[in-house]
Design a protein that fits this description.
The complex is a heterotetramer of chains A (419), B (276), C (264) and D (210). With 264 residues, chain C is α+β, with helices and mostly antiparallel strands. Chain C contains eight helices and ten strands. Chain D is mainly alpha-helical and 210 residues long. Classes of the chains: A mainly alpha (419), B alpha+beta (276), C alpha+beta (264), D mainly alpha (210).
């Protein structure tokens, strides 16, 4: 008999009934590296706040650096929260309840992490409220700020009942009642969350699509939004389920347990795959339109953007074909046939594709010269920038691990033990 | 942001943007406040019991929610969606309306795993039995499986005489140090007498005039149900990394709890008593 | 706020200030950069500041015709904020209205106290004419006494840009007001860079005033603007007699690469 | 269960309820009082003027000075603010009145050729541009429009500076409701903007913010 469980610390009282969790000591031991990263990241953030952004390697040309790029990426990956909520509560795909809680936690981590980094990234964090008090509604960033803040509130309210369902917490009558009642309003919040996500994912795309000064990023508009607005929404919706699939798989590997049934993996893969096929198609149409119409109308040759090493034409190929079309076909046609490993590998590719797309939109846009006597520039993030970002990763891992240990993230877990 | 803030203009875009924003905020705050107000109103024992049962039932794995009619083979596969309350279940009333064709492997009185099933008792899914006495009162007790799980030397918080019980509400608690397990009440009614450890934990309940016991298991259903519950117990024991496994056909010891280290026992007892 | 029809300038008539820079006369001496920095209280950068992190509201770029010696010719482009007229890229992107076009003068104004430091405007500006305060402003001991009282200091973490020395316009207006005039006279207001140019390569004035020198030069044959194709309507005109210089303004940056220019 | 017991318990529960509500109500009132009245009162530190000065005496019928006699402009139109003591010395080369303040002023400042370190009520933050010349000469505003009642004051009230921001209460405003508490307040951005809006002047941020 594994004595650890029984003789271990009292924390086992907090673990949900009917599931096994590793001994507390081992859990803590596994978290130590992340806690160290967290501490280093915290120091880096402290440096940036106390000494200013000169701690970073950003400069007047690279006004947006690795933080904005990674913010965009994790917000896209966190889209699984809104999309799963939408599918479960609005479209009534009950199968996805198996990963809903996990998706909410992932979404909460991604959004709170992104906002945290944004607060370090802006020069005057204490003036963050200015955007609310004096909003310029024509700015995509205003839309992003409003939506992300509201959505983080929504995610917190969605996260709250999951926390309150903890074995010990629910013994408090008020918590029990609150989690029950919060659960009842969840469809409303899922609806609001979908609406908000839709707009801010789009606005993040619009953020770069509206840059008329940067023909590389500029896209012509549909209604009042540039095409990147819509591309970002679809790509985020496609990447979200893939990321959920990926994190669920990782959680299941680390905990050595089956957490959801295979058909949930297959369904996630199918959703991700089909959306990604649509995305790849639209992205190709958009790229061709941009190359053949938008750019020539500005007196430039589209191919000229892809002559600057290291961002040659391969980046376009990688984004659309390698990390777009290929995994989308794997996910779409392989969801029922392929082993989970293949689906996970494809999901990794999808996530890479999204990250690459956000990289192209942020970093490559800024590195390309606009004036003919201008220079092509590259930039290397400083250790503070990397550490501050790793802080968010470590924060995410720790929150997720704690949630996995003490909250019931995967309702199917008990059932999976039987099969 | 607000009309009196410097720089605010009544442009169409402004009005559209801000009204959407305020609506979103209103919906979020509104629904949250509604939840908070409702939660505040829920803070009554009966309502809390209802919520607790709703939550516990929802958290049960699918295989623990098998419909009673699937035990007897009247339906092939069915998972209960009604919180084990057959009194309001349409499927139940439909099925009980037609003559029984059973495929059950157990006939009445057979005893799987050495668990005695009394033919004149009705069983609740939370491992209590109910016996209808000749005077119309009901006697409630723990079934053999649960009895075997109850800690030795634990205390029972039995309800005071006069307490009203509700189906799937709190019957009583078993308590030992900080651990606590809740026994669901199988029936509605008013407690008229209680018996402690010596008497083997029982309640006498006056069900009142409109006593309805349709939701309780009886006859052929009990055996298969008990079998599946033993399987569930086995799994729960597996979850606690316990060494003892109940081989098929074995006999449950009288006081299993005594053979296990105490920690984690609360979980197993609670799980079997349908608490999550 | 920027609705042109409702505008009634505080001091009478509407202006559209602009500048013409004769790049044939520009020697690349950098006096404009220095004058600008001194006039606008730009702090000296710390030792670890680079040309990419320092603040130069006016910046002189060098370009050449791509030929080898002895046919090589070069030209200097002093580039500050181009005071775009039509949908300046930086105005619409600012989330909190810290940037706006002054309808009375056509000057794009940035208010550092309203600025959050998100740097979206910097990413949006094709001229890279916006600068971020990466450091706290620090002056060598005693030098802060030479600061210009008409220009406020910018704190760390905000963006700043050229505003055609707007405080000089304010001072000119004040002087005119004290003398009982509604309107400033031509030449009473010129930015520091224009004033400092030793070869008089820069001409400043009201582009709406058809009698002005700046109007004549802007309309002349040799005048051109940088990145005019983007449609933002920059109000800094450049002037050159040489055709290859005029072509540089609109040339595809990639063409420089084909010539084998460095990409660092 | 005993019926009377239950009734008693209910009754005591009732009084408990009332008491709870009363405490809650007074708690709310107390917090509002603290936050809206006490706190704003203590957040401003009063700073007394070094010397007292009576505007009403100087601007009144006896002396009959106009505002611009002391508060004037230089040739570039810049407002010169409060005059130096040399200007005062024109009349007060020695004590000409009976007040103690005047005697103190003559002894400590005029005779020693020292300037007075006046505490300025309305010195704006560094990033604010304001031109008296434009407002008075082009805008044709009277001094009283903004400094209403100042000429009738007999004493210089202590200036009050926020302990947090260091700004004067006349600049940051004294109440949360938009009502200026004394006539000479109203030098906040909203006051400027309100007046400009009323007169139909639309301007951009850089007109007032440098």
């Amino acid at each position: 008999m594994d004595r650890n469980r029984n003789n271990g610390t009292k924390d086992i009282r907090l673990v949900a009934r009917g599931v096994n969790r590793m001994p507390f000591g081992k859990f803590l031991y596994l978290l130590v590296p992340w806690l160290i990263i967290l501490a280093i990241g915290m120091y880096a953030i402290f440096l940036c706040l106390a000494k200013g952004l000169n701690q970073t390697n950003m400069d007047n040309r690279f006004a947006f650096g690795v933080w904005i790029f990674l913010d965009l990426s994790i917000i896209a990956l966190g889209a699984g929260a809104f999309f799963t909520g939408f599918l479960v509560y609005i479209l009534k795909r009950e199968e996805l309840r198996a990963v809903l809680n996990s998706a909410v936690v992932i979404g909460f981590i991604c959004y709170s992490g992104a906002i945290l980094v944004l607060m370090v990234d802006v020069g005057q964090p204490l003036r963050a409220w200015f955007t609310f008090w004096h909003p310029n509604i024509h700015s995509m960033l205003t839309e992003v700020t409003f939506c992300i803040t509201c959505y983080l509130v929504v995610l917190s309210v969605e996260y709250a009942p999951i926390v309150l369902r903890n074995k010990k917490l629910k013994e408090v009558p008020a918590f029990l009642a609150m989690q029950y009642e919060l659960h009842r309003i969840m469809p409303v919040l899922a609806g609001v969350g979908t609406f908000l996500s839709f707009f801010h994912q789009g606005s993040l795309g619009g953020l770069f699509g509206v840059l008329q000064g940067h023909p590389f990023a500029f896209r012509e508009g549909l209604a009042i939004w540039p095409t990147t607005f819509f591309l970002f929404i679809i790509s985020a919706a496609a990447a979200g389920p893939s990321f959920i699939l990926l994190t669920t798989w990782i959680a299941s590997r680390v905990s050595r347990k089956r957490l959801v049934s295979d058909n949930v993996f297959a369904l996630l893969a199918r959703i991700s795959g089909s959306l990604l096929v649509v995305y790849v198609m639209l992205k190709s149409i958009d790229t061709l339109t941009w190359l053949n119409r938008t750019v020539p109308s500005l007196g430039l040759s589209g191919i000229g953007f892809f002559l600057w090493a290291p961002f040659n034409i391969w980046i376009l190929f990688a984004e659309i074909i390698v990390f777009g079309l290929v995994p989308s076909l794997f996910l779409l046609f392989g969801s029922g046939r392929l082993r989970t490993g293949w689906l996970v590998a494809s999901s990794v590719m999808v996530c890479c594709g999204i990250v690459l797309n956000r990289f192209v939109m942020t970093i490559q846009t800024l590195s390309l010269p606009t004036m003919s006597f201008d220079r092509f520039m590259i930039y290397t993030p400083s250790w503070q920038e990397i550490a501050a970002f790793l802080f968010v990763v470590a924060y995410g891992v720790i929150i997720y691990s704690l949630s996995f240990r003490y909250l019931r993230l995967f309702p199917q877990e008990i059932e999976m033990k039987v099969n | 942001m607000l009309p009196w803030v410097y720089g605010f203009t009544w442009q169409t875009g402004n009005i559209i943007f801000l009204s959407i924003f305020y609506s979103v905020v209103a919906v979020i705050l509104g629904s949250f406040s509604i939840a908070a107000i409702r939660a505040f109103r829920d803070l009554k024992p009966d309502r809390l019991d209802e919520i607790r049962w709703h939550f516990d039932f929802e958290s049960l794995p699918e295989f623990a929610k098998v419909c009673r009619h699937a035990f007897t083979g009247e339906v092939n596969q069915r998972v209960c969606r009604n919180g084990f309350d057959c009194r309001t279940c349409k499927v139940h009333s439909k099925i009980t309306g037609v003559p029984r064709i059973t495929k059950s492997v157990y006939s009445e009185g057979e005893i799987p795993f050495g668990l005695k099933i009394s033919a004149n008792c009705l069983y609740h899914r939370g491992h209590t039995w109910v016996r209808v006495e000749s005077d119309g009162t009901l006697t409630l007790g723990l079934d053999k499986l649960a009895e075997g799980l109850v800690w030795s030397q634990c205390e029972a918080d039995l309800p005071a005489v006069g307490t009203r019980l509700h189906v799937n509400g709190t019957g009583w608690y078993f308590r030992k140090e900080a651990s606590r397990a809740r026994v669901l009440s199988p029936v509605d009614g008013e407690v008229i007498a209680v018996g402690g450890r010596k008497e083997g934990f029982y309640l006498k309940v006056n069900p009142g005039n409109d006593s309805d016991l349709r939701h309780l298991l009886k006859g052929l259903e009990v055996g298969p149900w008990m079998t599946s519950e033993v399987e569930r117990l086995e799994m729960a024991l597996g979850a606690s990394d316990g060494a003892v496994s109940l081989a098929d056909g074995g006999v449950l010891l009288d006081n299993i709890a005594a053979n296990y280290p105490e920690q984690g026992w609360e979980d197993i007892l609670a799980l079997m008593l349908l608490e999550s | 706020m920027t609705n042109g029809n409702q505008v009634k300038s505080l001091t009478g008539k509407k202006h559209n200030f602009g500048m013409v820079i004769d790049v044939d006369r520009c020697t690349g001496c950098g006096a404009c950069m220095i004058a600008c920095a001194v006039e606008n209280n730009v702090p000296p950068g710390p030792v670890d500041a680079t040309d990419r992190t320092g603040i130069t509201l006016m910046r002189v770029y060098k370009a050449d015709n791509g030929m080898d010696f002895p046919d090589n010719e070069s030209v200097f482009f002093p580039v500050s904020c181009q005071q775009c007229e039509h949908h300046p890229p930086c105005v619409s992107v600012c989330p909190q209205n810290a940037v706006e076009v002054d309808p009375a003068t056509g000057i794009v104004g940035q208010i550092p106290v309203r600025c959050l430091g998100c740097r979206y405007c910097m990413a949006a500006c094709p001229y890279h004419a916006r600068y971020f305060n990466w450091w706290d402003p620090v002056w060598p001991e005693g030098m802060e006494r030479s600061l210009n009282p008409d220009v406020s200091l910018r704190m760390r973490g905000v963006v700043e840009k050229c505003n055609f020395c707007f405080h000089r316009l304010q001072a000119a207006r004040e002087k005119a007001a004290a003398e009982g005039r509604d309107e400033i006279k031509e030449g009473e207001y010129i930015p520091a860079c224009v004033e400092s140019c030793p070869t008089s390569a820069m001409t400043f004035g009201d582009l709406l005033d058809e009698g002005s020198e700046v109007y004549r030069l802007a309309q002349s044959n040799g005048s051109f603007r940088i990145l005019e194709r983007l449609g933002t309507g920059p109000k800094i005109y450049y002037f050159s007699e040489r055709e290859w210089v005029r072509n540089i303004a609109e040339k595809d940056p990639a063409s420089a690469l084909k010539r084998g220019a460095t990409t660092d | 269960m005993n019926t009377t017991d239950a009734i008693n318990r209910n009754a005591s529960k009732g009084t408990d309820d009332v008491r709870g509500k009363t405490i809650f109500f007074f708690g709310i009132v107390g917090m509002l009082f603290l936050g809206w009245i006490i706190f704003p009162f203590f957040i401003y530190a009063p700073v007394a003027q070094p010397v007292q000065f009576s505007h009403s005496t100087h601007a009144g019928d006896n002396v009959g000075l106009k505002c611009v006699d002391c508060h004037s402009y230089d040739k570039d139109g810049r407002f010169l603010g409060i005059p130096g003591t040399s200007k005062c010395a024109g009349c007060h080369s020695h004590t000409i009145g009976v007040s103690d303040e005047e005697k103190k002023f003559v002894d400590e400042y005029i005779l020693r050729h020292k300037e007075i370190r006046w505490v300025v009520y309305s010195s704006q933050p560094e990033n604010v541009y304001f031109s008296h010349a434009t407002h008075v000469k082009v805008g044709k505003l009277d001094c009283e429009t903004c400094h209403f009642g100042h000429e009738f004051t007999d004493k210089l009230r202590p200036a009050r500076f926020s302990r947090i921001s260091g700004y004067s209460i006349d600049v940051s405003g004294s109440t949360l409701l938009d009502i200026p508490s004394t006539p000479s307040t109203g030098m906040r951005m909203d006051d400027c903007a309100g007046c400009h809006n009323k007169r139909g002047h639309k301007e951009s941020c850089i007109d007032c913010h440098k």
